[in-house]
């Protein structure tokens, strides 16, 4: 279930928000530690001051201007929140929220890489929260 999130004091001119959540200590059995994408959300309207617990998968219920919000694919290749099954404790979860000067048009398959490429040149502000498991 996606956790509750809140944000405040958006930069002037913010037209949308985008969020990337990843386990930055995820082990790769074939190599070094590689961040594991848990959740990607884009085109969050600046009128929303947060996302409630369990929001993932329910964005279509917003309707109106908020209907542009889109959940992208995580590293399990499915849209929405996919919290990891922890093989060990001590993992750091990074929540990166971008305040943007425009909405993003990423097509039907939104991914972290597409989002990070699209936000270049459009970031008015960024907030990072690290949570430990």
From TrEMBL:
<protein>
    <recommendedName>
        <fullName>Phosphatidylethanolamine-binding protein</fullName>
    </recommendedName>
</protein>
<dbReference type="InterPro" id="IPR008914">
    <property type="entry name" value="PEBP"/>
</dbReference>
<dbReference type="InterPro" id="IPR036610">
    <property type="entry name" value="PEBP-like_sf"/>
</dbReference>
<feature type="region of interest" description="Disordered">
    <location>
        <begin position="52"/>
        <end position="85"/>
    </location>
</feature>
<feature type="compositionally biased region" description="Basic and acidic residues">
    <location>
        <begin position="58"/>
        <end position="79"/>
    </location>
</feature>
<dbReference type="Pfam" id="PF01161">
    <property type="entry name" value="PBP"/>
</dbReference>
<dbReference type="InterPro" id="IPR005247">
    <property type="entry name" value="YbhB_YbcL/LppC-like"/>
</dbReference>
């Amino acid at each position: 279930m996606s956790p509750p999130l809140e944000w405040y004091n958006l930069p002037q001119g913010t037209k949308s928000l985008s969020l990337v959540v990843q386990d930055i200590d995820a082990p790769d059995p074939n190599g070094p530690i590689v961040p594991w994408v848990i959740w990607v959300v884009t085109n969050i309207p600046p009128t929303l001051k947060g996302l409630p617990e369990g929001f993932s998968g329910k964005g279509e219920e917003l309707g109106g201007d908020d209907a542009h919000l889109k959940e992208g694919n995580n590293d399990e290749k499915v849209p929405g929140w996919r919290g990891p099954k922890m093989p060990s404790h001590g993992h750091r979860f990074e929540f990166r929220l971008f305040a943007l000067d425009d909405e993003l048009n990423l097509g039907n398959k939104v991914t972290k890489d597409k989002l990070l490429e699209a936000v270049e040149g459009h970031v008015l502000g960024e907030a990072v929260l690290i949570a430990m498991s």
